[in-house]
Write a structure and sequence with these properties.
The complex is a heterodimer of chains A (119) and B (107). With 119 residues, chain A is mainly β. Chain A is built from no helices and eleven strands. Chain B has no helices and nine strands. The chains are: A mainly beta (119), B mainly beta (107).
């Protein structure tokens, strides 16, 4: 059974940092491109970052470019998101999502972890 | 930047057909995907590559995409289909784009 479990969310003050993790199981992790998608409270979905299976290609949405860093450890079957200089508008549930090959859709999702940025 | 639009809400009676549209410039030139999200749950892929259903998704879900509009059709809608539905497409500049979502109410 495919499983993605996010962790690392919490309450932080503006300007602070947080590191999210996503533990994967039930599929060949290295064969999948992995993404982070977030959803602000009561709002829609926003894609924020993607990393290729090997980790060699990385992409960011303009809203997080320069502040967030995506990475992965295929040996540990884990995905990460380092978030620096957090802002109130970064408050959201953060989901990790798997993408098979070049299909350009999100085949499966974790349950998400809530990040709240507030003073 | 590439943008997608959806109607905020669609209402449908049980057993009837719900059509949810997603519009974007030349959307038909790329693949559209659809996600179902129920309250408190993570999104679930219900249609990918315009019209393909992932394993486990009921046949009552179908999709099409042509011109500037993609459509998700739920035939014989059931109360369990009540949810928010998001379309998503890929653009070479913006990369992954989601529509604002459509709340489907079954009543």
């Amino acid at each position: 059974e495919v499983q993605l479990v996010e962790s690392g969310g919490g309450l932080v003050r503006p300007g602070m940092s947080l590191r999210l993790s996503c533990a994967a199981s039930g599929f060949t992790f290295r064969s999948y491109e992995m993404n982070w998608v977030r959803q602000a409270p009561g709002k829609g979905l926003e894609w924020i970052s993607k990393i290729s299976g090997s980790g060699s290609s990385i992409y960011y949405a303009d809203s997080v470019k320069g502040r967030f860093t995506i990475s992965r450890d295929n040996a540990k079957q884990s995905l990460y998101l380092q978030m620096n200089n957090l802002r109130a508008e970064d408050t959201a549930v953060y989901y990790c999502a798997g993408e098979r090959g070049v299909r350009r859709d999100f085949e499966f999702w974790g349950r998400g972890t809530l990040v709240t940025v507030s003073s | 930047s590439f943008e997608l639009t959806q109607p905020p809400s669609v209402s449908v009676s049980p057993g009837q057909t719900a059509n949810i549209t997603c519009s974007g410039e030349k959307l038909g030139d790329t693949y559209a995907s659809w996600y179902q999200q129920k309250p408190g749950q993570s999104p679930l892929l219900v249609i990918y590559q315009d019209s393909r259903r992932p394993s486990g998704i009921p046949e009552r879900f179908s999709g099409s995409n042509s011109g500037n509009t993609a459509t998700l059709t739920i035939s014989g809608t059931q109360t369990m289909d009540e949810a928010d539905y998001y379309c998503q497409a890929w653009d070479s500049t913006t990369l992954y784009v989601f529509g604002p979502g459509t709340r489907v109410t079954v009543l």
